[in-house]
Please model this.
Amino acid sequence: MAEEAKPKDDAAPASEAPDGSEAESFAWKGHKLDEMGGAQVGRVEGSAKGTMEWLVARMGRFGHYCLVPGRDAVSANGRVWVPYTRDQIRRAPRVEPNAPLESESEQAVLTHYGLS
Model:
């Protein structure tokens, strides 16, 4: 007699699975960051979660790190485009790439991009 195949329950609970924006921004790590006009700004180094999803971007090869709102970002062919100018992104408050996102720092970045 053939045994009935039992379905495997290897899937993680929904509360542990990343939502779409977290999965996208993590997949964008290493992509070039461009403004919508096409000018290259930097490189996506990861993401941060606060009141919204942020892209952590490195400005130049040895440059500083800053946050860029990820909610309106689009990606294709190893590039991520955001609706902010190169100057606006490069003037954003600096952050440490692996440090936790403090609420004061996030508020400063929200203000910088006109989102608060």
